[in-house]
Please model this.
Amino acid sequence: MAKFKGAVVVDTERCKGCGLCVAACPSKVLGLASQVNAKGYNYAEMVTEDCVGCCSCGYVCPDACISVYKVTL
Model:
């Protein structure tokens, strides 16, 4: 069985910083950035590299601005 790790990519300009993805992440990989996007929202970003690729964050995102990738090691 191949080992893999996940990677989360957030479209920072579409993210409204609602925090649903942060709450949904079982690995506590996501957090809200201290920077803001062009609309003035603190967007979501990866704060650790412990993503398991479960896609929970992508499922709960109301704006569909999160993509989750699984990278084979």
